[in-house]
Design a protein that fits this description.
Helix content is 18%, strand content 47%. By secondary structure, the chain is α+β, with helices and mostly antiparallel strands.
Length: 419
């Protein structure tokens, strides 16, 4: 009986130990499955979210968003020399430095230093050509006709010339079209970067007693924004972080010429949920630069002279930007540029995006004065760890304490295209 009890006890212990080991194995299997799922998710997210190209100011280990990296050595740069402004190579982004995620191009360029902006300024632009902002029907004896639409002219087209004569202003276009006896015009247009010529035939309006073409045009615009930086390399300025587009067509306005003029902030209309506030400014007659480029990542110009009392600040490549504390520099009253506390809450490496960063205003003084981010603050520089990392571009209407920003390195490289 005692031997039987011992046997039963031994069997029971063995069975319990086996069940215990099975549980341990199941837990280990579950943990491994969870780890593999997490790794797979990080690879999938990284493949779509990480950049196709990165700017690097130095070689070695390039960390992207803390857990992804690329290793680049001088030997990878065939033909690279110290006097070459830009050189590029293809590499591979890896998770934790081990697991391949995607291929990407590394653009090696010189480290940049710029003069920090933050000043509100006035923008006066004249377009290269005259923009069509709409067409309209003309009342005729035959009923309503739309000659511009019939000719194939569309909202957003740029009128370059009429009968071979270059058009420089909306007044000139109106004068040419109003001085006619019903004869057709050869109108050269620019659409999506391509030129085309159409035949525009006016129709007679009995109500007005003259021939009409049924077209609305505009040649200039004005507004306010914030300077992001001054580049001492070529005496240029950069601002806004986004393009200036026509309010009616939403098309980018091609610049013929423009001016950057000094302003003074007179009032702030605070932002609220669902409604963007704005800065109100008085324009002065003092121009400090000419505006020469309107691009997807901001407007650029040539300075009359570099501003005084400005310190150089290094520009961070996008790969160095981190989530966390940062400083926003802007002008929201008559006391000039001031620093305000913000947080970078999200980072996106989408190519050509004006929304690389999400910025949240945490500074109580700025929230009290503006309600968060208002129109006119576009271009305000964002500084982190002593480096320029971005420029504010848009307010998020549903939550005006937040806004979007573009990477600063994009804007700096664009500024170097000014001759």
């Amino acid at each position: 009986m005692g031997a039987l009890s011992a046997h039963i006890f031994f069997f029971s212990v063995n069975n319990t130990f086996g069940d215990y080991m099975k549980k341990i194995i199941r837990i280990i299997d579950g943990c491994l499955a969870a780890v593999l799922c997490a790794v797979f998710a990080l690879v999938a997210v990284g493949s779509s979210a990480l950049p196709d190209s990165v700017i690097a100011y130095s070689l070695g280990e390039l960390t992207i968003d803390k857990i992804y990296s690329m290793r680049v050595s001088m030997n990878d740069y065939v033909g690279y020399t110290s006097d070459t402004r830009v050189s590029a190579l293809d590499g591979e982004i890896r998770l934790f430095g081990v697991i391949p995620v995607k291929s990407a191009r590394v653009v090696k360029t010189e480290e940049r230093d710029v003069l920090l902006g933050g000043e509100c300024f006035g923008i006066k632009l004249y377009s290269d050509g005259v923009m069509v902002v709409g067409t309209k029907d003309v009342e005729t004896a035959q009923g309503k006709l739309n000659p511009a639409k019939a000719a194939g002219i569309e909202k957003g087209d740029i009128i370059i010339s009429v009968n071979g004569e270059k058009m420089l202003s909306s007044e000139q276009v109106e004068e040419v079209f109003n001085d006619n006896n019903g004869k057709s015009y050869d109108v050269t247009l620019k659409r999506n970067g391509n030129l085309k010529t159409v035949s525009l035939t006016p129709v007679y309006s009995h109500a007005e007693g003259k021939y009409k073409v049924g077209i609305w045009v505009r040649d200039s615009t004005a507004g306010i924004g914030t300077l992001t930086f001054y580049n001492p390399v070529n005496n240029s300025l950069a601002a806004l972080g986004h393009p200036i587009t026509d309010i009616d067509t939403n098309e980018l306005i091609p610049i013929l010429n423009g001016e950057a003029v000094k302003t003074s902030v007179t009032k702030v209309y605070k932002s609220a949920d669902g409604q963007a506030g704005s800065l109100s400014c008085d324009f002065s007659d003092e121009a400090f630069g000419s505006l020469v480029m309107n691009t997807d990542c901001g407007i650029y110009g040539v300075l009359t002279s570099l501003p005084e009392n400005k310190k150089l600040i290094p520009v961070a490549p996008a790969t160095e930007v981190e989530r966390g504390e940062a400083t926003l520099y802007c002008t929201v009253d008559g006391e000039g540029v001031k620093p305000f506390d913000v947080k970078i809450t999200r980072i996106s490496y989408a190519q050509g995006s004006e929304k690389n960063l999400v910025i949240k205003v945490t500074d109580e003084a700025l929230l009290e004065k503006t309600g968060g981010i208002v129109q006119g603050m576009s271009g305000s520089p964002v500084v982190q760890n002593g480096k320029l990392v971005g420029a504010l571009t848009h307010v998020i209407l549903d939550d005006p304490e937040k806004g979007y920003a573009i990477f600063a390195d994009k804007m700096v490289e664009e500024s170097l295209n000014i001759a």
